[in-house]
Protein: BON domain-containing protein
Amino acid sequence: MKDQRAQQEIEYVLEPGAQVVVSEGIATFTGTFPDEESMREAEQTARSIKSVKSVVNKATVAHKVQTAVDSNEPTQ
Structure:
């Protein structure tokens, strides 16, 4: 049985690309979080809800492409 209220509370902090389903006291995350901090915040939110007994995280964290900036180049 889905717990709509708990699910809505968690969805409030979710970033686009990440999903949660709360069923029988288990919050299951899927999809992709933009970073580790967003994933931790969602997990903490889930754990803070009384009706959530456990958290299962099947989501991933997006790999950000970092570009090197050469600080020796003059700016114009």
In short: Strands lie at 18-23, 26-33, 54-57, 60-61. The first strand starts at residue 18 and ends at 23. The helical segments are 4-11, 36-47. Residues 36-47 form the longest helix (12 residues).
